[in-house]
Write a structure and sequence with these properties.
By secondary structure, this protein is α+β, with helices and mostly antiparallel strands. It is built from three helices and nine strands, in the order αβββββββββαα. The strands form three sheets. The protein has a five-stranded antiparallel β-sheet. A two-stranded antiparallel sheet has the order 3-4. The protein binds nickel (II) ion.
């Protein structure tokens, strides 16, 4: 990890087919200032992109750390930030019922595809102080957390698609890059 003088930093986001995205991330054992810097940088990078979730491996750090902010609309109609950090997250009790959601990913830019996942889960995770939390989740939060947790196993949303669909997405992405 780099060291930083001063504030937060926007870090480059890894994109397919970068092999580092297939890394299985390791558990966080030390809850220190380096972890706080990593999380602050992850939020900065995610908001800049912009995206609603980011896993540490997407900026090349193979640790089990996720940030999510689904935001909500404030009284004035402007989005209000609701940043959430998940360290060493686990999924408990995934429902038999599944939901389809049109997913995208900052590591597969501008590409979207429907992925089916359990509709509700219980999640257990640690916060920046190492304190354990457990909560039921549904809707977009359940989908987003499962998507981000896949990154910790080196899995992308396109890995849930058929081989044909996945190749179509990757080809489209390649075309877009060439045109850019
Ligand atoms: Ni993603």
């Amino acid at each position: 990890m780099q060291s930083y003088l001063g504030g937060m930093a926007i870090r480059p986001i890894l994109e397919v087919p970068d092999p580092r995205l297939k890394t299985v991330s390791t558990r966080v054992e030390t809850f220190d200032d380096d972890l706080r810097t990593l999380v602050a940088d992850m939020f900065e990078t995610m908001y800049d992109a912009p995206g609603i979730g980011l896993a540490a491996i997407q900026i090349g750090v193979p640790k089990r750390v996720l940030v999510i902010d689904l935001q909500h609309e404030g009284e004035d109609g402007e989005p209000v930030r609701t940043p959430q950090v998940f360290i060493n997250p686990e999924i408990l009790d995934p429902s038999d019922e599944h939901t389809l959601y049109n997913e995208g990913c900052l590591s597969v830019p501008d590409q979207y595809a429907e992925v089916e996942r359990p509709s509700t889960i219980r999640a257990r995770w640690q916060d920046l102080d190492g304190k354990v939390h457990e909560e039921p989740m549904d809707g977009l939060m359940a989908t987003c957390l499962q998507h981000e947790m896949d990154h910790l196993e080196g899995v992308l949303f396109i890995d849930h698609l058929s081989r044909l669909k996945r190749q179509m997405v990757l080809k489209k992405l390649e075309k877009l890059r060439k045109a850019a």
